[in-house]
Amino acid sequence: MNKATATNYRRWLLMLAAFLFGTTYPLAYAPFEQAIVAILAMAGLFNLLKMAASWRQSAAIGFAFGFGQFTVGISWVHVSIDSFGGLPLAVSLLLMCLLCGYLALFPAFSGWLWYRLRDTVPPAFNLLLFPSLWLLGEVLRGELLTGFPWLALGYSQTSSWLFAWAPFIGVMGIGWLVACLAVMVSYLTNKQNLYWLVPAFAVIAATTYWLNQQEITQPTDKSAQVALVQGNIKQSLKWEPDQQWPTMSKYQDMSRPYYDHDLLIWPEAAIPAIEIQAQSYLQNIDATLAWKGSALITGIIDYQPYSQVFFNNLIVLGRRAPELDKSSYIYGHNNRYSKHHLLPIGEFVPFGDILRPLAPLFNLPMSSFSRGGYVQHNLEANGWKLASAICYEILFAEQVRQNIQQDTDFILTVSNDAWFGDSIGPHQHLQIAQMRAKELARPVLRATNNGVTAVIDADGSIMAKAPQFTEAVLTAEVAQYRGQTLFARTGHGPVLALSGLIILIAAWRRWRYK
């Protein structure tokens, strides 16, 4: 084997190894929750990057890792494309490969930039540099083209001791710590730099132990009786005209025995009718709930004919405050939430005039929504205040954080994960909601059409959940919490500033000593 052939063989072997590490990486997430896998997979990636002979090879290793990571980790996306996209299998697989290839560009970018900066800093500095560069890639992935922060590294630790860091540094900060530990493991396996690894690991371990003993916020003596209704409506039937009334009747019938609860929650777009056309139905429930002393929050689509815009909304029926023994709902009232972070293709279509004629995938029902505000008032229902997030908005930590007020009682997230069938997607979605609860120390009420409907306590633990793919009403008594976490006050600002400073120092050293 000549030198050129050996070099080429080595390059492809490194990329294959990176791809395999990437495919194991999602085992750290729900429903598997093997948190240690994330550290080991990242350590493997860092070892491979150290073997790269050029910046091109380093970028290729990062790309291969990312492609494996997303091919397995977001395989649930293909369930939706294949089941509802109306495309041949070969075309749907091609679209999935293009999506995974796009997302893999961000690990490739982190790998490329690390190679460019690595020779300008001492080995110990990689304990800070590599995590900062990985974080940079994740931040860009979460912002560009509306953002897709799914499988952010920090979410892998909801079942580990590192979860205790969430109220202080958030999901991005935990991801930074995981990458730090991965660098340590990488150097330990090579028996390098042991003199500084031991104290660094000791500091992280001791701080993590201390944080696990802390009670960030305290429950008050108030609690709410909640009932979350999971209708289990098949996605293929949801928007069929002849199924509209059976669906609406089903939700009303399932909820009627729970009208004595403080709050009832229906999922995203639970009512398959335009709000203005469902007034008699809504007013009837509103009046009944007000008489019973309860309130209902439901998802519904609002079409405003004068401006010809659609909104994906949450509205409140029944009592706004317990002392108001009358209904509060009228069409257009301000006690509502309009989804801000819209899902590409599903809720808005970029370049719609070009793409919509090409395939049913680009012309799904309800794919022409307008955005609500980034920060909106909390919903008020029977005296309780709820910060809302519809569907994948719960991924965006900063958006949820900025909608939390000091007197917010609960975080409310509703979804319709029927698009993704019996895949890993709904379980990952629930795991993300657990992170929001822990970061902000507020219980999360999560109502979905077919699961996973759940109530999450302020410490991120699951209090109760309903079985998937069943008609169910999940009830729980949920405590009110008061107090603010450090993350609620500062967000990801400190960890982003630290990472930016570390990258700037490395970039300055490269410019200074090149």
Automatic annotation (TrEMBL):
InterPro entries named in the record: Apolipo_AcylTrfase, C-N_Hydrolase, C-N_Hydrolase_sf, LNT_N
Origin superkingdom: Bacteria
Membrane-spanning ranges: 12-29, 35-53, 60-81, 93-115, 127-152, 164-187, 194-211, 491-508
Biological process (GO), any one: lipoprotein biosynthetic process
Record has Nucleus as a keyword: no
Pfam families on file: CN_hydrolase, LNT_N
Molecular functions (GO terms): N-acyltransferase activity
Main location: membrane
Domain CN hydrolase: 229-480
EC number: 2.3.1.269
Record keywords: Acyltransferase, Cell membrane, Membrane, Transferase, Transmembrane, Transmembrane helix
GO CC, one annotated term: plasma membrane
Free-text function comment from the UniProt entry: Catalyzes the phospholipid dependent N-acylation of the N-terminal cysteine of apolipoprotein, the last step in lipoprotein maturation.
Family: Belongs to the CN hydrolase family. Apolipoprotein N-acyltransferase subfamily.
NCBIfam families membership: lnt
PANTHER family linked to this entry: APOLIPOPROTEIN N-ACYLTRANSFERASE (PTHR38686:SF1)
This protein's name: Apolipoprotein N-acyltransferase
Organism: Neiella marina
Gene field: lnt
